[in-house]
Write a structure and sequence with these properties.
The complex is a heterodimer of chains A (465) and B (81).
Chain A lengths: L8 H7 L5 E3 L4 E3 L13 H4 L3 E5 L3 H11 L5 E4 L9 H7 L4 E4 L13 E4 L19 E5 L9 E5 H5 L13 E4 L6 H12 L3 E4 L6 H10 L4 E4 L1 H9 L10 E4 L6 H10 L4 E8 L3 E6 L6 E2 L10 E6 L2 E6 L5 E2 L14 E10 L2 E7 L4 E3 L2 E3 L1 H8 L5 E11 L3 E10 L7 H18 L8 E4 L17
Chain B lengths: L2 H15 L20 H15 L16 H12 L1
Helix pairs in contact in B: 1-2
Classes of the chains: A alpha/beta (465), B mainly alpha (81).
Chain lengths: 465, 81
């Protein structure tokens, strides 16, 4: 992976050879076209030093604008499509937004007279921005996928974003990357930057596109490297079109990758390397695990030569590295780091043997009579049943212990309608849970559901009390 | 099956699942002495909600805390009425 050494993303992207492209559901753009044209209806001079908010439903206009503006704008804000317009005035004020780039696909928002509106596009039909100096250390602002309130703004630099890419993963320049993430989220942006900096091409997903259609498109485009959350991947495995692509590299991040999903992906894509990575918007990518096993080797904790230092304190994983976000924007965000420079990820880990396992999010804890349970540790056991596609564990209120554990499961489609089969599966799951979990962690009830919702962030929707 | 019979059956089921040794059940047996711990009682209440569709504790009224097995049965019988 070539080093960036203060070159702008535009220079790095167009520096290599080969016909490279980015495709979405609606079309393909050959990156070389940015040499002779622009997707922005404005001159670079007008945007120099500006704080630019990029807002489009499709990802392609945002991708092109970000490539063009890195090194020119002071700050670019990558708005995910589900960002509520109500938050925009506050965001614009906190981030000192001067310009809103929009492709007209989302309803316009009036941010006052001091904020200019400029058109961006998925087409490269405007006058080129070539020849403008791209020496500014542009700040890249991402939004965290919080469930309530205004999303936090997390500021990175191209340097902090690309730090994790130097991880020894050998990728040929004719690779075709893809991701189920939106590129305006940390996990998706990582993949976009891998493609752009590594000289590869990319297939962009679309939230409105049926999974099977996307898989067919990814297969037809020759996708070789693809990432998503375990929830994304469970949906893939439920699709009859899963076999329509044949990736060489399958990556999971954003949620706990349990042994069942790793095993299922190995079985579905026997020729692929299956890796799971730990990353968060604030802390960056800390590590990836390539041995096909859930959890990570305990030797990673406190390893002195690691690019991201890790430690465990009060049960949660803490990370310190140069890949961390530079800072949060605005008064709403306290400094992300503690006194010694570590970020608390809020992800609970547990040491078993010589490996650490993720047990869940701190805020997701279920309290059964004072005993703590993380939904993910119970789901990991339930998911081991071969007929279970996906499960969700939640708190069910209870007058005696405050809460008990309840589970919902989605069964394989071919047996989903069979009530007798469900009764047997339910008993088998409970037997297995009783054998491998403490009594208070065993679900009191298991119900069958047709599907479980996945949020725009790619993660299972959970209602935290 | 009557509410009483279902409750007594569920007490047996929960105790067996949780490997608890039950005292012989009678109406004046104190729940606290029955062999069921608080997790067992929590599971019992959840199971009865599923089996009977009754949650006498969730009504928002001032629900008396059942002390004996008989109190518990009465609570559910009243909730059904």
């Amino acid at each position: 992976m070539p080093k960036l050494s203060r070159r702008s993303l535009w220079e790095v992207t167009l520096g290599g050879g080969g016909e490279r492209w980015i495709a979405d559901r609606h079309g393909t753009i050959v990156l070389d076209r940015l040499r002779s044209g622009s997707s922005l209806a404005v001159t670079a001079r007008d945007l120099r030093g500006s704080s630019v908010l990029i807002r489009s439903e499709r990802q392609l206009p945002t991708i092109l604008a970000a490539i063009e503006l890195d090194g020119i704008a002071r700050r670019i804000l990558l708005c995910p499509p589900d960002l509520a317009p109500d938050h925009l005035p506050g965001i614009a004020a906190d981030a000192g937004v001067d310009v809103v780039l929009s492709d007209g696909s989302l309803p316009p928002v009036d941010l006052g007279r001091s904020v200019r509106s400029v058109e961006c596009s998925s087409e490269v039909t405007c006058r080129s921005l070539v020849g403008f100096e791209r020496g500014t250390a542009t700040e890249w602002v991402l939004f965290t996928s919080g469930t309530t309130g205004r999303p936090k703004m997390i500021a990175h630099t191209l340097h902090s974003l690309t730090g994790p890419l130097d991880d020894g993963l050998a990728v040929a320049t004719d690779a075709v990357w893809s991701t189920f993430y939106d590129v305006r989220r940390y996990g998706g942006l990582q993949i976009l930057l891998r493609a752009l900096i590594g000289g590869a091409s990319m297939v962009v997903s679309d939230a409105a596109e049926p999974v099977s259609d996307f898989l067919v498109r990814a297969g037809a485009s020759g996708v070789t490297h693809i990432s998503g959350t375990p929830s994304h991947w469970r949906r893939v495995l439920m699709s009859p079109a899963a076999s329509r692509m044949a990736p060489a590299y399958v990556r999971l991040s954003g949620e706990v990758a349990d042994q069942a999903i790793l095993d299922h992906l190995h079985a579905a894509y026997p020729d692929a390397n299956v890796a799971h990575a730990f990353a968060s918007t604030e802390a960056g990518v800390a590590f990836d695990v390539r041995d096909g096993l859930a959890g990570f080797p305990a030797s990673l904790i406190g390893a002195p030569d690691a690019k991201a230092e890790m430690r465990v304190q009060d049960g949660t994983l803490r990370i310190r590295s140069s890949r961390m976000a530079v800072h949060g924007l605005a008064a709403q965000t306290r400094d992300l780091r503690d006194d010694s420079g570590f970020i608390d990820t809020g992800d609970m880990v547990e040491l078993r043997g010589d490996r650490y396992y993720f047990v869940g999010r701190r805020e997701g804890v279920i309290n059964v009579g004072g005993q703590k349970i993380y939904p993910e540790e119970v789901e990991a056991v339930i998911n081991l049943h071969p007929d279970v596609q996906v499960s969700r564990v939640r708190a069910r209120s209870n007058p005696i212990t405050g809460a008990v554990v309840a589970a919902e499961v989605v069964l394989r489609t071919d047996i989903a309608g069979d009530a007798a089969a469900f009764a047997a599966i339910r008993e088998a799951i409970l037997t297995h849970c009783r054998a491998s979990l403490a009594a208070h962690k065993v679900p009191v009830s298991i119900s069958q559901v047709a599907s479980l919702a996945i949020a725009a962030s790619g993660k299972l929707v959970r209602a935290h009390a | 099956m009557s509410v009483r019979a279902i409750i007594l059956q569920q007490i047996d089921i929960v105790a067996a699942q949780q490997h608890k040794i039950l005292k012989p059940l009678s109406d004046d047996l104190h729940l606290i002495d029955s062999g069921l711990d608080s997790l067992c009682l929590a599971i019992l209440v959840a199971n009865l909600d599923d089996e009977l569709g009754l949650d006498p504790f969730g009504t928002g009224d001032d629900v008396p805390i059942p002390v004996t097995v008989g109190d518990l049965i009465t609570l559910y019988e009243n909730a059904e009425a």
